[in-house]
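Slack export, channel: ligand-projects

TW: morning all. Re-posting the request from yesterday since it got buried. We need the structure predicted with the small molecule present, not the apo form. The ligand is fe (ii) ion; the SMILES is in the block with the sequence. No rush, but it would help planning for next week.
GE: picking it up
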Amino acid sequence: MCVGSKSSCSKEELTYHHGFGNHFESEAYPGALPQGRNNPRIVPLGLYTEQLSGTAFTAPRNENRRTWLYRAQPSVSGTSNSFYACGGSDGTVSSSLPEIFGGADWSTDMKLDPNPMRWGATPLLRSGERVNFIQGVHTLLGSGDATCKSGIGIYVYAFNTNMSGSASGGEDLHMYNSDGDFLIVPQQEALWIQTEIGRLTVAPGEICVIPRGIVFTVNILNPENTAEDGSFARGYMMEIFRGHFMLPELGPIGSNGLANSRDFLHPTAHYESEDSQANKSCIIVNKFGQHLFQRSNPHSPYNVVAWHGNYLPYKYDLGRFCAVNSVTYDHPDPSIYTVLTAKGDENGTALADFVIFPPRVMATDQNTFRPPWFHRNVMTEFMGLIYGKYDAKKGKNGSGGFVPGGASLHSIMTPHGPDAASYDANVKNPCDEPTKFEGGLAFMFESSAMCKLSQYALNCEQRERDYASCWDGLDRAFPTRAE
Ligand SMILES: [Fe+2]
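GE: finished. pasting the full C-alpha cell output, ligand included:
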C-alpha cells in the first residue's frame, strides 16, 4: 500500500497518496481490499464490487483510467428513486437548484463577442441568503457541446453555505458530473471536498480536479468564516467535455520541473462509519448535458471502504510549481508555465491548458521588456487572479483594474498586452539586475476552442465596460521616441 502524507491545511489530519496518474490502492478498514483479483465471488466483509471507468475500456494503456470500488452498497442501490429535472421545470417536485448548471442555457443564452473583456471580483448574489456551491456557480464562457463530448466551460463561483444539509428538505446534497472533468481554483476560503474516493481540503493557492462521474460534495473548510459577516467562498472552474487533464510534455527541459508528479495528492479511502450518517437519506444531483437532475437516495454515497486504481480526484499546491524561464534575454511563450493540459484535436494543440504566473525571479538582461508582449493568439485566453497584482496591468491610476477574484478574456486573435501605464513604466525600467516578482498569483485557462459568453458574463455589474481604454495612450512614437 502506498504511504501517504499529511496535509498542512486540514480541519482534521487527512492522508494523501502522492504521484500523478499512478495506480494506488487504499483501504479504510483492514482486509476490505480483495487481493489477487478484482472481482471475487465472495467479497471481503460483505462489500460489493463496482468498477468506475474514466476512459473507454479499449483506451491505450498509458491513457486508460479506471478504479475498482469496494463499497457497502453499489451505486445502483437506490436508483429506483428516479431522477427528475431540477428547477421545477417539469412541475413534479420543487427544487432550490437551478435547471441548468451555471444558469446559462447553452442553446439560447450564449453569445459571441470578440471584444476584450474584464470583470471585477465575483460578488455573492442573493445577499442575506444562504447559497451553496451548486447554486453559486455562474457560467462565463462556453464552447462546444457536452452531449457531443466537445469543448469546455469556464465558470466562477461564490457561495456561503455547505452542500451538506442544504437541500430543500435539509438533506445533504451530493453531485456527480456526467459531462466532464472539473478543475477548481479557489480564490477565497478553503474548501472541504468529500468524494467517493476520499476527502480533500483545497485552499486558495491550491487546485483540485474532480474527474467525470465521481460523486462529490463541496463544503467550506471553516464555515465560521462565512457565518454572519457576509464573507463567502469564491473561485474559478474550468470543465473539459472530453479527455482528462495530463501533465505537459517537458521536452528539452528534461525529466523534472514545472509541476512535479510527486506533488499531486490523491485522497485515501474513507466511508461514513456512523450508522446515522451512512443510512441518512440524501439528494444525488447529476449534471447531465449541462442540465441538472436530482433524486433522493436512501443512504449516503460515501460508503467506499476500499479501492484501487488510477481514476481519482486530486489536488496540487501551486506553490510547488518549479518555474523555468530565460536567464539571458526574451521570454519563452507562457506555455512554459503550464501546470496541466488536456489534448485537443491537433497534434501539440491543447483543448485546455491550465497555466500559472507564479512568484519567480526575472533574470533577463537590461534590454528585455519584462511584462508580456503585445499579442494576438490562436487560442482563447481567460485569466484570473488568486491574490496580489499582475505585472502587465497597472491601470490608469495604478489601481490595476485586474483584481483578485476578477477575470479577463482575450478571445481568439483579439489583440491584447500590457496596458499603456505598464508599457510606459517598463520601457523606462533599466532592468539591469534580476528581480523577484512576488506581487501576485495569476493563472490562465487557455483553450483552442472559440468561446461564447453567457448573459451573466455580458451583463453582470462587475463587467468593466471600458476595459479596452487601458490601451488608449499607446500613441505613435515612430520615429522620434527617445531611447
Ligand atoms: Fe496572451
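GE: first-pass observations. The chain has two domains: 5-317, 321-463. Helices lie at 275-278, 420-428, 455-459.
TW: perfect, thank you
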